[in-house]
Write a structure and sequence with these properties.
Elements (H helix, E strand, L loop, with lengths): L1 E5 L9 E4 L9 E10 L2 H8 L10 E2 L4 E8 L11 E4 L14 E5 L3 E3 L6 H21 L7 E4 L5 H12 L3 E6 L2 H10 L3 E4 L5 H8 L4 E6 L6 H4 L3 E9 L11 H5 L4 E4 L7 H17 L6 E6 L3 H12 L9 E5 L1
Parallel strand pairs: 9-10, 9-12, 10-11, 12-13, 13-14, 15-16
Antiparallel strand pairs: 1-2, 1-4, 3-5, 3-7, 3-16, 5-6, 6-8
Helix pairs in contact: 2-3, 2-8
Length: 330
């Protein structure tokens, strides 16, 4: 089979696209014919050696996948050959990645693909959808009628947070770096979208939520807590999803006297059962059209190195040349 893999951590150019032996499904695994995969920032961190994890040799990059079951391994009974599925959480903790024509994956990390949802949509929604669900429901416990602010409403996670929060009945405000992206945020369902390059975001937040924001979803790597805490409501919740090496100043006093709470989480720490609960809601919202994955571009799997370079430029260097997910197809 063809696959995009590395033999040791390095820059995007360390990715080789070439032939590897076809995998055989082990106990509890199914063999997938991969139809689509998606690129995530964590993929670039693992490939670059920024996150130290046990890696198979060679290591196929990638977490997300959508495809068709070709074969079931011993004891795998959840799916049948020919069934379309999607999943995430691969390429982690010794598990092989997904950027290949075939993938042997434990069935506990896979979910049925709803009718009418494409493989590209499912791959684009997988990791970001589970991430948004964990943050909004398990951590923030977002309730109908509450206000939510998310930085960057056209990114992979940001666009999902906007739509998922609306599906839960919240009022949503977000930001974008251009008028075109601002319009895209509104099309996704945001009640208010602000061009942070030309408008005063903090003033817009105060107009949107005079009593403070109930849930603030932070996507920047080095949060400015002195700025955010005054914009939170009484018992406001703040979600962190970035900034592995960040050490910002934190205003303890102003934070605790408002009964606020701070939640940090890494999606890949969640158990298969926890992630399956997320997937059930994601499948329902996908079927109902309440979740529409924002895909920036679709590339051939052979261009995996270029896709990693593009993702890295936007995640680490804020190039601003992506508005959604990069999806690749074998």
């Amino acid at each position: 089979m063809k696959a995009a893999y590395i033999t040791q951590p390095g820059p995007p150019e360390a990715i080789t696209y070439g032939d590897l032996p076809d995998p055989t499904p082990g106990p509890g695994q199914v063999l997938l014919r991969v139809k689509a995969v998606a690129v995530n920032p964590i993929d670039t961190y693992i490939r670059g050696g920024l996150i130290k994890m046990e890696l198979p040799q060679p290591y196929i990059v990638g977490c997300d996948v959508a495809g068709v079951v070709e074969q079931c391994g011993p004891g795998a009974t959840q799916f049948q050959p020919g069934q379309a599925v999607w999943g995430s959480n691969q390429g982690l903790f010794g598990r092989q990645g997904t950027f290949s024509e075939l993938a042997a994956i434990e069935e506990r990390w896979l979910y049925p693909l709803p009718a009418g949802v494409s493989f590209e949509q499912a791959a684009a929604q997988s990791l970001v959808g589970i991430t948004a669900h964990i943050g909004l429901l398990r951590c923030a416990r977002l309730r109908e009628g509450e206000t939510l602010f998310v930085n960057g409403g056209t990114g992979g996670v940001g666009a999902t947070v906007v739509q998922m929060a609306k599906a839960l009945g919240a009022r949503v405000m977000t930001t974008a770096g251009s008028d075109e992206k601002r319009a895209a945020c509104l099309a996704l369902g945001a009640d208010v979208a602000v061009n942070y390059k030309t408008e005063d975001v903090d003033e817009a937040v105060r107009r949107f939520a005079p009593q403070g924001v109930n849930v603030w979803w932070e996507t920047v790597r080095e949060p400015n807590f002195d700025r955010v805490v005054p914009l939170l409501s009484l018992r406001g919740r703040m979600i962190l999803m970035a900034g592995r090496e960040a050490r910002p100043v934190f205003p303890v006093g102003p934070f605790y006297v408002k009964d606020c709470s701070l939640h940090g989480f890494a999606m890949f720490n969640s158990s298969p059962d926890e992630q399956r609960q997320c997937a059930e809601d994601i499948n329902r919202w996908l079927s109902e059209g309440k979740l529409r994955p924002r895909i920036d571009r679709v590339l051939p799997l052979a261009e995996a190195a270029a896709a990693h370079r593009l993702q890295e430029e936007n995640t680490l260097h804020k190039a601003g040349t992506l508005a959604g997910k990069i999806v690749l197809v074998p």
